[in-house]
Amino acid sequence: MKYLDEFADPDLAARLLDRIHAVTTRPWAIMEVCGGQTHSIIRHGIDQLLPAGIEMIHGPGCPVCVTPLEVIDKALEIAARPDVIFCSFGDMLRVPGSDRDLFRVKSEGGDVRVVYSPLDALTLARDNPDREVVFFGIGFETTAPANAMTVYQARRLGVRNFSLLVSHVLVPPAIAAIMESPSCRVQAFLGAGHVCSVMGTAEYPPLAQRYRVPIVVTGFEPLDILEGIRRAVVQLEAGRYEVENAYRRAVPAEGNPAAKAMLQEVFEVTDRAWRGIGVIARSGWRLAPAFAEFDAERRFAVQDIHTAESSVCRSGEVLQGLLKPHECAAFGRECTPRNPLGATMVSSEGACAAYHRYRRLELTRV
Amino acid sequence: MSEVNGRNGAPVDLAAWSCPLPLRDSPTVVMGHGGGGALSAELVEHLFLPAFGPVGELRDSAVVDVGTARVAFSTDSYVVRPLFFPGGSIGDLAVNGTVNDLAMSGAQPLYLSTAFILEEGTALADLGRVAEALGAAARAAGVRLVTGDTKVVDAGHGDGVYVNTAGLGLVGPGVDIRPGRARPGDVVLVSGDLGRHGVAVLSCREGLEFGTAVESDTAPLHGLVAAMLDTGADVHVLRDPTRGGLAASLNEIATTAGVGIEIVERQVPVPPEVADACAILGLDPFYVANEGRLVAVVPPVDADRVLAVMRGHPHGSGAAVIGRVTAEHPAMVVARTGLGATRVVDLPVGEQLPRIC
């Protein structure tokens, strides 16, 4: 596979950093939307190398982190049923619900399986016609097309023992919600490259104009991120607020028309609660009425969910960029990747986990 | 609060444990307890050791005096799924894994025991292939299978074939290889590129099948170790980075010896196909298991000579210097990133989880 080494080339990175230093005359606060970008920034130490005034604010784009507690608790209920094979992406297994996680359910006898593609869950359903197979369909626009395709295929093939527990979230309403927040400090965004490779870039110019904020669609390798930051700073210094695409090798302006058509058929827009943030209007997808029979929430009619968030976890402020992970009193003490109090400490894309994993050296020196 | 029966049947009060990272209050075993990371270490430290009493420095194999001989003794259980994977099988692992645990004490492995736990209904043809692989691996390693046992459990209560092997070997005079001997200034080497075994196994695991040409690196390493010791070098530490990968091995060395370790990311050899698979799955190659690689910590004066001998050996041809031991940041492993920044290389918690996107 090309692009791994090439887009981490240290000489090219040094040249991009020089150019960022050269154009920066004032402090700027830039939010990277996507958790994959957060992980890359912290893992490679990119924020250590930027000009002192450039602050990276870590955004809410970690799908594991923002999946609402109520949905996690429903997943735990469904996964514990003896007739169910519960399939999930790997990093959902350790996300804490109100009183346990999917690993615990598995250790107590639940049939919980990690799959890499939701279509594998559909195969499992066909291979196990006497069991109910449920896939935990979460994530942003990036993971949604494969989940939509799986439901579409389930209906086409008549696989009645398959269903989707769906909690999809959308990036543009989150950007609007962050900019509407009275405490917002964000002056520019690095757009989530893979979200845009599905959806295209057309949703973003109205946001850039309305909030007078530059949005640079950015990739995930070190050079991608540095180039995204450079373009954002150039715009900020010039007082411009436009949408730029710095990830053209993966993002055509129109996105992926086939994927968008599939999404439009299978899902419909809905209000959605974001864990740690609250309800954002029209910020998610649920199954459209034509596919309602594949909705795990309807099929299992999970009742009596009483959610209980940790009282000390401040992941909501972290997700909104109001608090750096290590500024939380529980960081590294009560709350560690071993014993996460909030979802941001679980996924490798969560800001708290990234700081804990890669940054303790500097944090202990402070 | 849950309780676990400890020594003499007396309850161990989990609430009274003094570890700064208390065991998550799970009343049951979770998969991470077997992952070779922090959860495994806690289980040993807080549940097994208090019940067992003192065992000395924890290492891959114990070195005990029997009469005038210094005997290395080790055991390991193999529960790999699937039983056969690109480049090897559970039979190869069961021999090479225990041989390597002995070799990491500098021992010449001699004898192995083999115990099978079989699930009712397992095809005898499969068991035959496992046995053939085990015998062939033992012959290749020059060790003898001298005793064994077979048990069968009800269908549904096992995963086809589990294998346990225990091994004995002899440690030469003057050889003292253990994690506690790492000293500031020492040089850290690996014997070859990393991540092949873990990626090969993942590539054929149910639900994660993906096409890759990567084969397991499973191999017996005692010949390589003997060649390294024959140089006269004072090898301080040897570890085989199996579960938990390079990161777990380096963290164990740093913690046991009370030293820091600094590695340079770009000097750690990772095959491109492993890097690709890890990038797709969201895994870090430093945490992926190896079954035919070792980490060596040697004094700087011996480093060049040991590296040259490793590179001349079939199981060490890809050897490389990856970093050094330092007095700074004790018990912490730090990597210099490709861009020149630094990051912590943490002890894995439990299992590595394929990422969502």
From TrEMBL, chain A:
Pfam families: HypD. Gene3D superfamilies: 6.10.20.100, HypD, alpha/beta domain 2. It comes from the Bacteria. Signal peptide: none annotated. Keywords: Iron, Metal-binding. Belongs to the HypD family. This is Hydrogenase formation protein HypD. It comes from Pseudonocardia charpentierae.
UniProtKB/TrEMBL annotation, chain B:
This is Hydrogenase expression/formation protein HypE. Transmembrane segments: none annotated. PANTHER family: CARBAMOYL DEHYDRATASE HYPE, HYDROGENASE ISOENZYMES FORMATION PROTEIN HYPE. Residues 225-260 form the Peptidase A2 domain. Belongs to the HypE family. It comes from the Bacteria. InterPro entries: HypE, Peptidase_A2_cat, PurM-like_C_dom, PurM-like_C_sf, PurM-like_N, PurM-like_N_sf. It comes from Pseudonocardia charpentierae. The gene is hypE. PROSITE patterns: ASP_PROT_RETROV (PS50175). Pfam families: AIRS, AIRS_C.
